[in-house]
Design brief:
Shape of chain A: globular
Number of strands of chain A: 10
Number of helices of chain A: 10
Structural class of chain A: alpha/beta
Distance between the termini of chain A: 31 Å
Strand content of chain A: 15-25%
Largest interface: A-B, 25 and 16 residues
Order of helices and strands of chain A: EEEHEEHEHHHEHEHEEHHH
Structural class of chain B: mainly alpha
Number of helices of chain B: 9
Helix content of chain A: 40-55%
Strand content of chain B: under 5%
Oligomer: heterodimer
Distance between the termini of chain B: 30 Å
Mean pLDDT of chain B: 93
Radius of gyration of chain A: 18 Å
Low-confidence stretches of chain A: none
């Protein structure tokens, strides 16, 4: 479980996060939603430690991550996988080398054990034959799936996904959503997804936090979304004719 | 300027640490030997031969007094190549070739979130990316410079022999005259310092960027400009310290 307590973050004079508190449970897909510029990416980067917070604390299963030294944070980061918006695969490494990278850095596994683990992860994301391809040879969906394989290679306790569906067609986006959801349940991972894709909200939103102008404006489940009376949430989620009709 | 210097020192503090995984460091070091060192051999060789030839021809052209012995051409060529051309001019050329490459490589990794990915995995990204480059350049650039010295002097000899300005014997006598081995030490000390500056300044500019492709281009330009300026400044400082 990850608990964020009263965190605030400013860049210069602009306060991006204002006293946000939210809890992310294990085995669930926890979604952070909000308009572009609402502060959801900043919230995620504060939680993983890419940005230092101005006040408040981030708690990883009782360990106060936000006040740890960088050397202590690095140890926790080995329990953490992240899927970046663009995949962030290492250009100079093949698919196999990308997925093997965390294993090379942090385990004492033999070459065969590492290869078995890589193959398992690639099979899990349905890319069993892609070992020798380079990132430049992959489609957008394949890049995301390799990034997921890399993120789960060390059996993470926490999985962060920043806009996993951006730039993907609806069918591929669904595949990625289902994959993340399955992996979350299968390995009982605390998964946090940053998205503004409404299909994701309605398909896999076990727990949803709506960020509006840097504040936690609403939280609930995908079922609660359908009956919520919060104006800003409804304006955001049911902004198109199609979604209004669904509601 | 002080803010940049402070940020540079903070980055260097992260870079010069024990690598997270020794095996990964050695592997990366070999890659950097290839990309920063071996891949520069061609340009270093071509420039050295031609510049050596030009130095010899210009010296010969400017010596028209019968009182100055012919071997002066060889002596001057050797001194120019060893003391200044190979360590400083070749380092300036490497600042352009290697510096821009480092800044754009690290800058692209920054804007495509590959550095964030390393950080999230718990890897000290500055150490992983920059330390092998710095070690490779500081070990390999002296080799490049020694090769440049030989080729520069060879270029001078070739130009003299092919044009017939002075004889091969006179040129060789010149390059053997009053040789002080400390000039090689001086050149290599400068080379190591310049290699450190090229890699760390270029890496700093690549590592610190935010934005997109435009910023990568800017970082690459800044890397070349600042490392070249620092090479010129440190050239003066080191010459003052070591030769006077």
């Amino acid at each position: 479980m990850i608990e964020v307590r009263n965190i605030s973050k400013s860049f210069g004079d602009k306060q991006v996060l204002k006293d946000v508190s939210v809890r992310f449970d294990p085995g669930k897909t926890n979604l952070i939603i909000g308009q572009s510029g609402s502060g959801k990416t900043v919230l995620m980067k504060c939680v993983v430690g890419l940005f230092d917070i101005d006040s408040g604390e981030v708690d990883f299963d009782g360990r106060i991550y936000s006040s740890m030294k960088i050397s202590e944070k690095r140890k926790i980061r080995q329990e953490l996988g992240m899927l970046f918006q663009g995949g962030a695969l290492f250009d100079s490494l093949s698919v196999q080398q990308n997925v093997m990278f965390p294993l090379n850095m942090f385990t004492k596994m033999s070459a065969k054990e590492k290869l078995d683990r890589v193959n398992f992860c690639l099979e899990r994301v349905k890319l069993a034959e892609a070992n020798n391809l380079m990132p430049s040879e992959l489609s957008g969906g394949m890049i995301k799936r390799v990034a997921i394989a890399r993120a789960i290679s060390l059996n993470p306790k926490y999985l962060f996904c920043d806009e996993p569906n951006s730039g993907l067609d609806p069918k591929t986006a669904d595949t990625i959503d289902d994959l993340i959801s399955e992996i979350t349940r299968e390995f009982n991972i605390t998964t946090i997804i940053n998205t503004h894709d409404m299909n994701s909200v309605l398909n896999i939103g076990d727990s949803i936090a709506f960020i509006y102008e840097g504040n936690l404006w609403w939280d609930g489940t995908k079922e609660d979304v359908m009956s919520a009376s919060n104006k800003e949430l409804n304006d955001f989620i049911f902004s198109t004719e199609l979604t209004k009709r669904i509601k | 300027m002080f803010r940049h210097f402070g940020s540079y020192l903070v980055l260097m503090f992260q870079v010069f640490r024990r690598p997270d995984k020794a095996r990964a460091f050695w592997k990366q070091l070999l890659v950097e030997f290839q990309s920063l060192g071996v891949d520069s051999l061609g340009i270093v060789a071509i420039i050295s031969v031609f510049m050596g030839a030009v130095v010899a021809l210009q010296t010969a052209f400017n010596i028209d007094s019968p009182l100055i012995p012919a071997y002066t051409v060889g002596f001057t060529t050797r001194q120019s190549i060893i003391l200044e051309f190979s360590p400083t001019v070749i380092s300036l050329i490497l600042a352009g070739k290697v510096g821009s490459r480092i800044a754009s490589e690290i800058g692209t990794m920054r804007v495509t979130e590959q550095i964030d990915a390393l950080q999230i995995m718990g890897v000290n990204s500055a150490n992983y990316l920059i330390f092998p480059k710095a070690v490779a350049a500081m070990l390999f650039n002296p080799i490049l410079i020694i090769i440049s010295m030989f080729l520069g002097i060879f270029g001078g000899w070739l130009a003299c022999v092919l044009t017939g300005i002075i004889s091969s014997e006179d040129f060789i006598e010149g390059i053997r005259a009053w040789f002080d081995p400390f000039s090689i030490t001086y050149a290599l000390i400068k080379t190591v310092v310049f290699a450190f500056l090229i890699v760390t300044v270029s890496s700093y500019h690549g590592y610190r960027i935010s934005g997109g492709a435009l910023e990568v281009g800017r970082a690459s330009t800044k890397a070349v400009v600042y490392s070249s300026i620092l090479i010129i400044i440190f050239n003066l400082i080191l010459t003052q310290m070591l030769l006077t």
